[in-house]
């Protein structure tokens, strides 16, 4: 949860809305699905298939915070050129 406090610092977009960032729209829904699946997997018993699934979903969850600023910078550079 502490990583959520970093999100305002990572927001460096030149435009305000996601309508100007189509790749970030896809990334947003990727994040929503990941959170829903992590919530579901957290209610499952600690057994073999659920442990690996939880670990993979956790990597996907934290990769959002790495990919979001990178894609935003890429899209801003693409729009400015």
From TrEMBL:
Keywords: Electron transport, Heme, Iron, Membrane, Metal-binding, Mitochondrion, Mitochondrion inner membrane, Respiratory chain, Signal, Transmembrane, Transmembrane helix, Transport
Source organism superkingdom: Eukaryota
InterPro entries, per database record: Cyt_b/b6_C, Cyt_b/b6_C_sf, Cytb/b6-like_sf
Transmembrane segments: 27-43, 50-71
GO molecular function (one): oxidoreductase activity
Chief location of this protein within or outside the cell: mitochondrion
The Cytochrome b/b6 C-terminal region profile domain, residue ranges: 1-81
One GO cellular component term: mitochondrial inner membrane
Record membrane topology: Multi-pass membrane protein
SUPFAM superfamilies from the UniProt entry: a domain/subunit of cytochrome bc1 complex (Ubiquinol-cytochrome c reductase)
The name this protein goes by in its record: Cytochrome b
Summary of subunit composition and partner proteins: The main subunits of complex b-c1 are: cytochrome b, cytochrome c1 and the Rieske protein.
PROSITE patterns hit by this protein: CYTB_CTER
Biological source species: Phlebotomus papatasi
Cell location: Mitochondrion inner membrane
GO BP annotations, alphabetical order: electron transport chain
Signal peptide: 1-17
């Amino acid at each position: 949860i502490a990583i959520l406090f970093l999100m305002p610092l990572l927001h460096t977009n030149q435009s305000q809305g996601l309508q100007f960032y189509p790749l970030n729209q896809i990334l947003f829904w990727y994040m929503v699905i990941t959170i829903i699946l992590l919530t579901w997997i957290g209610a499952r018993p600690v057994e073999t298939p659920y442990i690996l699934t939880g670990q993979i979903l956790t990597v996907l969850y934290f990769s959002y915070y790495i990919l979001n600023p990178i894609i935003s910078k890429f899209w801003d550079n693409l729009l400015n050129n």
